[in-house]
């Protein structure tokens, strides 16, 4: 059976024509209208494993949450990884349009625990980098391959036109190893202006 390669998709509409919600992917949205923060996992489930769980942990009960999750039996990354500057899923865009602060959680390759911060919200990015450093989580905010500065990157499509992308290697995406990262990010998000 031929699996359409997500690299050929121009937008979410292309993905939705090739795959079926409820079979190949799931979408979850939790709105917290009193919060200006949205935590999103556009490549969750089995696309970039561990990212949905991290987004949920960071959002807790306080922050808005969005997750697009691959649920196929296999090849989720190849079939469903719509690159961030093409990710225009309507429920996600509707949620983040109401939020001044958007933090996108992603998974990247790497055997060493590391975090790579990007996005157009340089102030929030730097606050997160400082908090992660204090938590002894290795974090780079420049000089890496995940700058996330394209204006159409989903992290930059919130109410203020800028946000933060957090790329996290596999060793930091699970359970106890993720706890300091989650706590550091939450500590910063609690301080953003309403």
Structure write-up:
This protein is of the alpha/beta class and 194 residues long. The chain has a single domain (6-189), classed as Poly-gamma-glutamate hydrolase, zinc-binding motif (Aminopeptidase), CATH 3.40.630. It is built from six helices and seven strands. The protein has a seven-stranded mixed β-sheet with strand order 1-3-2-4-7-5-6, sandwiched between helices. The termini are far apart. The mean pLDDT is 96.
What are the secondary-structure elements, in order, as H or E? HEEHEHHEEHEEH
Overall number of strands: 7
Radius of gyration: 15 Å
Structural class, judged by helices and strands? alpha/beta
CATH topology: Aminopeptidase
Write a compact overview of the structure shown.
This protein is an alpha/beta fold. Helices cover 29% and strands 22% of the residues.
SSE blueprint and pairings:
Blueprint: H1 12-18, E1 25-30, E2 37-45, H2 51-59, E3 64-70, H3 76-80, H4 90-96, E4 101-108, E5 115-118, H5 122-134, E6 139-140, E7 164-169, H6 175-189
Parallel strand pairs: 2-3, 2-4, 4-7, 5-6
Antiparallel strand pairs: 1-3, 5-7
Helix pairs in contact: 2-6, 5-6
Key traits:
194 residues; alpha/beta; Aminopeptidase; seven-stranded mixed β-sheet; 6 helices; 29% helix
